[in-house]
Design a protein that fits this description.
2 helices, 33% helix, 5-stranded mixed barrel, alpha+beta, 116 residues
Length: 116
């Protein structure tokens, strides 16, 4: 009887693990990478600093501890950069970013960036 219970527990555990892995793959596959053009700036200035003349100010504010944000060209949406290290060399620049945008959460996870 103990062996049967042990086997059932093992089978149940394996099925549970497979279900968890399957769900995780589905969630990651549903997040789609998109390409967005815009400016890398700081949270303090936001959309006001989405121009070439604000590069020095952006770098100063980021060095002082402000969060890095990305301001889209299309609708001037301000998105907090989830992984700011990916854009550290582009502070104050106009760039094209490939990544996952979460409009409801107001964030962007950057996969790659290139200068415009």
């Amino acid at each position: 009887m103990k062996k049967v219970a042990l086997y059932l527990l093992v089978v149940f555990s394996l099925l549970l693990c497979m279900a968890i892995v399957s769900t995780a793959k589905t969630k990651s596959a549903s997040a789609k990478a998109t390409t967005v053009k815009g400016w890398v700036t700081d949270a303090k200035c936001g959309a006001k600093a989405a121009n070439a003349s604000a590069e020095a100010c952006t770098k100063k504010c980021l060095a002082a501890g402000q969060k890095m944000v990305f301001v889209t060209d299309k609708d001037h949406q301000v998105l907090t950069v989830a992984n700011p290290d990916a854009l550290k060399d582009h502070a104050g620049h106009h760039v094209s970013v490939k990544g996952e945008v979460d409009s409801s959460g107001g964030t962007i996870h950057v996969d790659s960036a290139s200068m415009l």
